[in-house]
Amino acid sequence: MSPLTAPPVSPGGAAQALFREARRRRRRRWLAGIAVVLVASAAAAVSTVSWLHRASGHEDGGTGPAGTGLGARSSAAAAVWFDGTRLHAGYIHLGGRVTQRAGAEVSADLLPLVQAGGRVYWVNPAGAFVPALGHWSQVVQYLDLATGKIGTAGPGQTVFLSADGRYLLMSQTATSLTETPVAGGASRQLTLPRGWYLPGGDGLPDVGSGEGLATANGIIVQSAESSAWRARALGLWNPRSGKVEVIGRELAVIGAYTPPGGRYSLLAWLPAACPFPDNCLLKITNTATLTARTVRSPLPGGFAAGGAFSPGGTRLAVFLNNSPSRAARLALADPATGAVRVARGPRLALGKDFAWARWLPGGTHLIVGAGTGGSYLVDSATLSARPLFFTRGHGNDIASSQDINFTAAIIPPRR
């Protein structure tokens, strides 16, 4: 890899438009979440238990967390997602079909769900009462996949996992968060150094799609530069040393991959400045050495925000901006060589939101989509794609459709 070089700080027109859309999207997420009524009664929990059993063990015969049967099978992958009103659980069949059941109504921010330790977590923007802590305007809640019960993990406006998956990280403000063992135990309070902020905080632009992100060498943070007209610094904060190492000036963060037991992560991100005409480059940074590989798009429009590393970290799903049509095309990048394979389809309309990708267990398939439109199942070997729609006639919008979408948490197979 080549040494990291800091890109210029003045983003182009595409960056400005992206920031404006990110701020509008953030407001829409809060308004949509507050408008949803929270149902947390015992009857809802019992209903969810039977729903989980019907969606998995009794109908599909899968295996998964104890008590549910929900988990990946040889011909299907299990997932939980949110449609703007209800949680859904079901299977993504490799033939392009989805079997599912709708569960309890919940209030949730429209961010990707987080799964760990047999639970699926989300942010409830309507707030709730936390025992011993009082009422909070935003809390992190969870669905227990073994029992179907809904509980509250604690105060939080974002939720994400440590790189090794052992700790649940919940931010209470843009500068503070708690670290709690997934397996249970006491929480530790963490506070960022002055001038650095967590992504998704109030008044700040989103990093990537607004989720927090941890690597083997620290937590991703951003500088206090919140204006859409100025580039912000991307930093790597080590909570134990308290130090922040600057990675560069960024437009968006795509994601990170940490090998099992690894002392480094690969961080994929877009630099703030895009060469004319808006040909955004892709950087893949080793978080231990801060060296980076620069990847160039084979299309003139450069890279769009959004994507994900494969389960083994050998491929990176990215999206190419097919300028000037503002349509995104899926591609797979090799982090080791920088080679890029472009899929013929689908062409995903950009404008409202970032494109998104979720890899299924085993890395043979992934699901992709953009904005609030429908999703597609992609074969990672051939890059052939097929629609993954469950409902028909609603435009496949998250606000009016039960289709699987960017909030989906993919449930790993039971070991």
Report the count of strand segments. Answer: 31
What's the average pLDDT?
A: 76
Which ranges are low-confidence, i.e. pLDDT below 50, for 5 or more consecutive residues?
A: 1-73, 201-209
Over the alpha carbons, how many angstroms does the gyration radius reach?
A: 20 Å
Q: Please give the largest β-sheet.
A: 9 strands, antiparallel
Distance between the termini: 35 Å
Give an overview in words.
The protein is mainly beta and 415 residues long. Helix content is 9%, strand content 41%. The chain has two helices and 31 strands. It has helices at residues 13-35, 42-55, and strands at residues 2-3, 76-82, 86-93, 98-105, 114-116, 119-124, 128-130, 134-136, 139-144, 150-155, 158-161, 167-173, 176-181, 188-191, 196-197, 214-215, 218-223, 232-237, 244-257, 266-271, 282-286, 291-295, 303-309, 316-321, 327-333, 340-349, 355-359, 365-370, 375-379, 385-387, 409-411. The longest helix is centred in the first third of the chain and has 23 residues, at 13-35. It is globular.
